């Protein structure tokens, strides 16, 4: 979806939903947008975010690891601000149905300590133990994970969750020292499916417009 980040959703650019959610949280002291686009940067500033740098081209390709984007932002903050960064809160543009409460819950869990990263999760619609399959080299299908005991009902399979793009809270040193989410101590915060929609396709966008239109959440990042 070209131009997705600034495409209007319910009357304002998609990126504005993330910015406004972040600005409502007192524990978030700076709201910074990392982008390689001057057009996105201008929209971000209009909605109250800082854009103190333009992301380098090597970190703006479709295959650029998001982890390195986080590290680049931290490098900038640590090199230009005398204050230590207690935690990096990442609020992706693609989950506009989040509530501020979801981000607050992530911060609460992070502040308990003994963790490197907080992710958000929601119910999985498929289970690798029950109805997710893979194919072998001969084209035969089988379960992704074969449980020791036969699973007849989905309810009997071990619980699994989908990761969402609602929010992440990460320890800065972890981003500098490691190269991915699963290399450290991870905890998760649950988000209900109606707030966890990740906009990746036109269909996702249509669903978001529908949910916002029928009032499943408050406007401007507020809880209903």
Largest sheet data: 5 strands, mixed
Order of helices and strands: EEHHHEHEEEEEHEH
Report helical residue fraction: 25-40%
Number of helices: 6
Alpha-carbon distance between the two ends:
29 Å
Could you explain how this protein is built, in words?
The chain has helices spanning 14-23, 38-46, 66-80, 100-111, 172-177, 202-213; strands spanning 8-9, 12-13, 88-90, 117-123, 133-135, 141-143, 161-163, 168-170, 186-190. Residues 216-222 have low confidence and may be disordered. It is an alpha+beta fold and 224 residues long. Helices cover 29% and strands 14% of the residues. It folds into two domains: 4-124 and 160-213, Spore Coat Polysaccharide Biosynthesis Protein SpsA, Chain A; 125-158, no CATH class. Strand 1 (8-9) and strand 2 form a beta hairpin.
Observed structural traits:
alpha+beta, disordered C terminus, Spore Coat Polysaccharide Biosynthesis Protein SpsA, Chain A, globular, 224 residues, 6 helices
Q: In summary, what is this structure?
A:
With 224 residues, the chain is an alpha+beta fold.
Question: Secondary structure elements and their pairing?
Answer:
Elements (H helix, E strand, L loop, with lengths): L7 E2 L2 E2 H10 L14 H9 L19 H15 L7 E3 L9 H12 L5 E7 L9 E3 L5 E3 L17 E3 L4 E3 L1 H6 L8 E5 L11 H12 L11
Parallel strand pairs: 4-9
Antiparallel strand pairs: 1-2, 3-8, 4-7, 4-8, 5-6
